[in-house]
Each structure stands twice: as structure tokens, then as C-alpha cells.
Design goal:
Blueprint: E1 2-3, E2 12-16, E3 19-23, E4 29-30, E5 37-43, H1 51-61, E6 69-76, E7 80-81, E8 84-93, H2 95-110, E9 115-123, E10 125-127, E11 132-140, H3 143-159, E12 163-169, E13 172-177, E14 181-184
Parallel strand pairs: 5-9
Antiparallel strand pairs: 1-4, 2-3, 6-11, 7-8, 8-10, 8-12, 9-11, 12-13, 13-14
Helix pairs in contact: 2-3
Protein name: Molybdenum cofactor biosynthesis protein MoaE
Organism: Ignisphaera aggregans
GO biological process, one term: Mo-molybdopterin cofactor biosynthetic process
């Protein structure tokens, strides 16, 4: 099921397996299957991901399915990179294509043995030091499956979707491109 709200300001709720998810227009929610769960969304600078709540809802929604582990990754803005102070990160994306790429990543991981749920939420807009930029959760039958899937998803999220990261530091602005390489903004 896929749904996008029509009004930015009105929080809405979507029920999936008796679990309710809140979302606004800036968040798109994708859920598939009766036994497998997938949630892919962007969140804006004015939205904070409540990790404890997300995990609680994930556990409640998947109860009784043999889940033995939930592995979570939370990306945050670093304070220092290459010896320079980071003031802010700014994320932009071709949203339609980026959501499709995130959805494809989640779907392909759900096909793997033992993986029962995948949630990926990526920030768009600006973020200051210590603020969350990426949330990934994987629920699986065991810790090995959960941790391996989490690692694969993280590497793919960093490489595949058209999401662009601009790092604003005390020595200038840099686009961060694959494998942590940085290119000064003026050079592009």
C-alpha cells in the first residue's frame, strides 16, 4: 500500500498490522505484505525521528513472527571531519527516484532469508551537529541476519539513491561523493 497525504500541516495515521504510523506530506509511507513490513520515508529538518517509538511500534507490529533481533543504525552529523569543524549538512534528492531506490533496497532485503522488516528514513534539508540524518532498522529471526542486512542496506543507501550531501565546514563547502570523498563546491 502506498499513500501520500495532501496537506503538509495535517498529521495523518496509517494502520498496518494493527500498528499506526504518523506521517505528513513530507513523509511517504510504503508498506507491503501481511508478514513482511517495509517503511521508506524522508524526514525534514522540522521533524525528529522518535527512535524508541519506531522500535516499539515495530516490535508490536511484528509480534508472534519469530523475530529474534532488531538491528538499528542512526546516522548523525559529525562535529569534525578531516580536522575541520562541520557547521551543517544539507541533503537534497530527486525525491521520486530516491524513494524508488530506497524502496527497491528494502524490498530486495526483505526477500532474503530471515529478514522480516526493513525501515529506512533519510533526512532532507539541513542538519546541525549531532542531529539525526539517517535511521535504518532491520528485524530478523536472528542477530546474524539482522546485522548483515543492516550493513548491506547502509552501504546501498550511501551509494544508490540520488541523494546529495553538502557539508558546510569552517574551510568551505564540500559535496560528499562515494566512499567519503569530498569535492569543493566551487570546483563543480
Amino acid at each position: 500500500m502506498s499513500y501520500t497525504s495532501r496537506n503538509n500541516d495535517v498529521p495523518r495515521r496509517l494502520a498496518f498490522n494493527k500498528t499506526y504510523f504518523r506521517y505528513t506530506r513530507s513523509q511517504r509511507v510504503l508498506c507491503v505484505g501481511l508478514l513482511k513490513h517495509k517503511h521508506v520515508a524522508f524526514f525534514r529538518s522540522d521533524v525528529e525521528v522518535d527512535v524508541e517509538r519506531r522500535v516499539r511500534e515495530l516490535i508490536q507490529g511484528l509480534g508472534g513472527r519469530g523475530i529474534g533481533a532488531i538491528a538499528i543504525f542512526i546516522g548523525v552529523v559529525k562535529d569534525v571531519v578531516e580536522g575541520h569543524r562541520v557547521h551543517e549538512l544539507s541533503y537534497e534528492a530527486y525525491e521520486e527516484y530516491a524513494l524508488k531506490a530506497l524502496d527497491r533496497i528494502a524490498s530486495e532485503e526483505l526477500e532474503k532469508s530471515g529478514v522480516e522488516a526493513v525501515e529506512i528514513m533519510h533526512r532532507l534539508g539541513s542538519a546541525k551537529q549531532g542531529e539525526k540524518t539517517l535511521y535504518i532498522a532491520v528485524a530478523a529471526r536472528g542477530r546474524k541476519e539482522a546485522l548483515e542486512a543492516l550493513s548491506r542496506i547502509l552501504e546501498r543507501v550511501k551509494a544508490e539513491p540520488p541523494i546529495f550531501k553538502l557539508e558546510k565546514r569552517d574551510d568551505g563547502e564540500y559535496y560528499v561523493i562515494g566512499e567519503g570523498r569530498r569535492v569543493k563546491r566551487e570546483e563543480i
